[in-house]
Design goal:
Radius of gyration: 26 Å
CATH superfamily of the largest domain: Glucose-6-phosphate isomerase like protein, domain 1
Oligomer: single chain
Number of helices: 21
Structural class: alpha/beta
CATH topology of the largest domain: Rossmann fold
Strand content: 5-15%
CATH class of the largest domain: Alpha Beta
Length: about 550
C-alpha cells in the first residue's frame, strides 16, 4: 500500500495549531506549571528503563490533542502498518523500508510477496560465526596470527551508525581495536593505517553497490598498502565486504564466503542493524549486538501498538512538528550527558536531515510549509562551556533533548553526581531563567552597592522559557541504546508521514556526486567543460 498523500495544511487542526501557538507566545512555562498541578505526570512517559518528561516544553494539552488529530489526518496508523508490513513506501526508488525486520524475533513482513525472516536469520548466523571466530582467535590472518585490529571502510550510514554505536558501547568492548575510514581525504586513510600491522588487521569494505566513490577509493588505497606488505593471495584472509555486487568483490580479491549481503529494503542510514553492523559485533561481541537489536525491537513494538498519547516516538515527532511549523524553531539540539554518546548527534544529523530534508511532497508538488529540522549537539557538560550561552541568552528558540542515565557504568559516584547535577540544573535554569529582581537581590546579599553594578545587571538576566525534553534512562546498556536509536528512527518516520514527504530517498546527495564525477573525468581526459564563473575560477586556481 502506498503512503497517503495528505497536505497537512488542509487539516482542520493546522489552523487551530497556529492559533494555539500564537496564544502560547504570551505564556511562560512557569505559568503553565502553576495552572496545572499534574502537568509533569500528565506529560511524562514511562517505558521499561525510560522515563521521558515532556512537561518543560512550550505546549498545552490542547495543542497535544490538535497534534494527535493532525497525525490522524495524515493517516499515521495506516502508514505504520505499511511500514512494518514491507510495503513499497520508498516509492521513488520502488523499495520497502524494513530495517525493523532486521531486529525482530519474527516478522510477518513480506517484500514482493516473499518472506524475509530466513534471509535475516541467515545473515545473523553469519555475523555471529565470523565475529565469534575473530574474537576467539580461531580465525587468523595469512601468517597464522590472530587479528588485533578491524578497519571499517564505508561512508554515510555505512560509517556513522557503526562509529556511533561502537563508541557508545565502548564500556563493553573486547580486545579488538576498531578503526573507521570514511573521508576520501587522503589524510584520513593515512592516519588510520598508521601503526597497523597487515598480519593482524581485518578490513571490512561496506558498500551495497561496491561502487561508492569514496569507499572504493579508500578500499583500493588500503588494498595497495596491504599487497605491498603481504601479497595478492593474502587478500582473501584479510578482507570482508558488505555488498550485493559479487562480481566486483570477487575482482577485488574478496572470497564469496566473506561477502555479507544487504537487502535493497534496508536504507543506508538505517543499516547498522544489518551486516553493516559487523564492526559492532566484532567490537563488543555478538551477544551485545543481539541485545542492541532486542532493545530496538522492543521499541518497534511499543511504536506499533501504543496509542498516540502514550507513544514515545509519536510524541517526539509531533513535538518536533509543533516547534518547526508553529513555533518557528529552525534547529533542535540533542545533548547526551555521557561521553559515550559523543557521536549520537552526528548520527542523528544524517538520519533526520537526509530523510526529511525535502521540499517536494509525495504528490510531486512543492510544499508550502517547513519540513525537516537542523539537528546538532554535543555531550554535556562540554556543551555547557561551548554553545549553551546562545541557548540561555540568545535570540533563537532551540528545543533541546537532554539524555541522561541514572546509573554510571564506571561506578564513580562523585563524578556521576556532578554530571547529573548539571543535567538537572540546566533544564531547570533554561525553564526558569533569572529575573532582574533576582539578580539585584544577589548583589544586595553580597553587600554590593547597586549604583556600581547597574550596568551589569541587565547582562545577568535570563529570560528563561527555553523548552527541553528530558530522557532519564536507567543505564547505557546495549538494549537501552537500541531502544533509544529506534525511538529517534520512528520519530523521523512519523514526521515524514505528517509532512507528506518521502523520507527514504536522498536525491539531493546524488547531484553532488554526479558533478564531482564530471569534474574528475574532465581532469582525467584533459578536456574542460564550461562551468559557472565562480566554479571556473576555482577550478583554474586549483589545477594551475
Amino acid at each position: 500500500m502506498p503512503l497517503p498523500q495528505n497536505n497537512p495544511e488542509q487539516s482542520p487542526s493546522w489552523a487551530r495549531l497556529k492559533t494555539l501557538a500564537n496564544t502560547l507566545n504570551s505564556t511562560t512555562l512557569i505559568e503553565l506549571f502553576k495552572n496545572d498541578a499534574k502537568r509533569t505526570s500528565n506529560m511524562s512517559i514511562e517505558w521499561k528503563d525510560f522515563y521521558v518528561d515532556f512537561s518543560k516544553n512550550l505546549i498545552t494539552e490542547e495543542a497535544w490533542n490538535a497534534l494527535y488529530e493532525l497525525a490522524a489526518y495524515a493517516d499515521l496508523d495506516a502508514a505504520i502498518n505499511a511500514y512494518f508490513n514491507g510495503d513499497l513506501i520508498n516509492e521513488t526508488e520502488g523499495r520497502a523500508v524494513l530495517h525493523t525486520a532486521l531486529r525482530a524475533a519474527h516478522s510477518d513482513a513480506k517484500v514482493n510477496g516473499e518472506e524475509v525472516n530466513e534471509e535475516v536469520a541467515d545473515v545473523k548466523r553469519r555475523i555471529q560465526a565470523l565475529s565469534d571466530a575473530v574474537i576467539s582467535g580461531a580465525k587468523k590472518g595469512y601468517t597464522n596470527k590472530p587479528f588485533t585490529d578491524i578497519v571499517n571502510i564505508g561512508i554515510g550510514g555505512s560509517d556513522l551508525g557503526p562509529v556511533m554505536v561502537t563508541e557508545a558501547l565502548a564500556h563493553y568492548k573486547n580486545h579488538l581495536k576498531v578503526h573507521f575510514m570514511s573521508n576520501v581525504d587522503p589524510d584520513h586513510s593515512v592516519e588510520v593505517l598508521k601503526g597497523l600491522n597487515p598480519e593482524t588487521t581485518l578490513f571490512l569494505v561496506v558498500s551495497k553497490s561496491f561502487g561508492t566513490q569514496e569507499t572504493l577509493m579508500n578500499a583500493q588505497t588500503v588494498r595497495r598498502w596491504f599487497v605491498e606488505k603481504a601479497s595478492e593471495e593474502a587478500i582473501a584472509a584479510h578482507f570482508a565486504a558488505v555488498s550485493t555486487n559479487l562480481t566486483q568483490t570477487s575482482s577485488f580479491g574478496i572470497s564469496n564466503d566473506m561477502v555479507f549481503p544487504m537487502a535493497d529494503w534496508v536504507g543506508g542510514r538505517f543499516s547498522l542493524w544489518s551486516a553493516v553492523g559487523l564492526s559492532i559485533a566484532l567490537s563488543v561481541g555478538y551477544e551485545h549486538f543481539e541485545a542492541l537489536l532486542a532493545g530496538a525491537a522492543a521499541m518497534d513494538q511499543h511504536f506499533a501498538e501504543a496509542p498516540a498519547a502514550e507513544n514515545l516516538p509519536v510524541k517526539m515527532a509531533l513535538l518536533g512538528i509543533w516547534y518547526t511549523n508553529f513555533m518557528q524553531a529552525e534547529t533542535e539540539a540533542v545533548i547526551p550527558y555521557t561521553q559515550y554518546l559523543h557521536r549520537f548527534s552526528a548520527y542523528l544529523q544524517q538520519a533526520s536531515m537526509e530523510s526529511n530534508g525535502k521540499s517536494t511532497s509525495r504528490s510531486g508538488k512543492v510544499v508550502s510549509y517547513q519540513t525537516g529540522s537542523i539537528v546538532w549537539g554535543e555531550p554535556g557538560t562540554n556543551s555547557q562551556h561551548a554553545f549553551f550561552q546562545l541557548i540561555h541568552q540568545g535570540t533563537k528558540l532551540i528545543p533541546c533533548d537532554f539524555i541522561g542515565f541514572r546509573t554510571s557504568l564506571n561506578k564513580n559516584q562523585p563524578h556521576q553526581d556532578a554530571l547529573m547535577a548539571n543535567f538537572f540544573a540546566q533544564t531547570e535554569a533554561l525553564m526558569k531563567g533569572k529575573t532582574i529582581e533576582e539578580v539585584t537581590a544577589e548583589f544586595v546579599e553580597k553587600g554590593v552597592e547597586l549604583k556600581s553594578v547597574q550596568y551589569i545587571i541587565p547582562h545577568k538576566v535570563f529570560a528563561g522559557n527555553k523548552p527541553t525534553t528530558t530522557f532519564l534512562i536507567e543505564s547505557l546498556t546495549p538494549y537501552n541504546l537500541g531502544a533509544l536509536i529506534s525511538a529517534y528512527e520512528h520519530k523521523i518516520f512519523v514526521q515524514g508521514v505528517v509532512w507528506n514527504v518521502f523520507s527514504y530517498d536522498q536525491w539531493g546527495v546524488e547531484l553532488g556526486k554526479q558533478l564531482a564525477n564530471r569534474i574528475l573525468a574532465e581532469w582525467q581526459n584533459g578536456t574542460f567543460a564550461e562551468h559557472d564563473q565562480s566554479t571556473q575560477a576555482l577550478l583554474k586556481r586549483y589545477k594551475n
